[in-house]
Amino acid sequence: MPNVIEIKEYTAPELDVFARLTEAQLRNRIEKEKGIFIAESPKVIERALDAGYEPISLLMERKHIEGQAGNIISRCGEIPIYTADRDLLARLTGYELTRGILCAMHRPKLKTVEELCANARRVAVLEGIVDSTNIGAIFRSAAALHMDAVLLTPTCCDPLYRRAARVSMGTVFQIPWTRIGEAQAEWPQDGMIRLKTLGFKMAAMALSDMSVSVDDPQLMAEEKLAIVLGTEGDGLSPNTIADCDYTVRIPMSHDVDSLNVAAASAVAFWQLRVK
Residue 128: which region, alpha, beta or left (left: phi > 0; alpha: psi -120 to 50)? Predict the structure, then answer.
């Protein structure tokens, strides 16, 4: 039988993960390796469960227990299912629940860059991208357009933030990813060395007089390629561009100088995929 608990008291400590802890606090709760994240919406939760992520508790509208959450509940064993009507849940969490369901889940231990990239031929490297919507959209493109893995520099937004995972449609649980360096000082030099040791050529997506087109035949023919995308607004750092093997541009028209980083990632991933 499902372990359904009707919410009667806002201040109950077991609701802290949904109501009173920031995503940064959830990420580092107690010990870093024991962190928590919140998955939102049935599709996202299903994809997390499919990928082997471990649920802790559910929060949902009462009507979904016998409705769209039925399959999720059947897969989650006897974890607590906290429930109330939509208005009460919105007051509790501070936002309207997308399709009425949240799931608190354990964070996985991340693999090393070497483990993740051992058999990879195309990887995306994200430098300092802080907008959760962009992170989610890039992950969705990476999963759909043939990237083998995503690597994030230390200053990137967390892909498991609730909004990032929701925008990605749960693809953050499908495509392998990890951090490349724990401290900001480890990127770009140390991170570049690690990737080049693994046999990758580095392609910086940046505007430059020395850049090659994204459809350059030599670039497309590289056996192992890391596509490096930079932060919103400023783009890649000069040191990163200087350390890369290629600087790559997407040809534009109508005097448009660049695309949003999420849109640019989709173009680059499709053009530079292994054919």
Answer: left
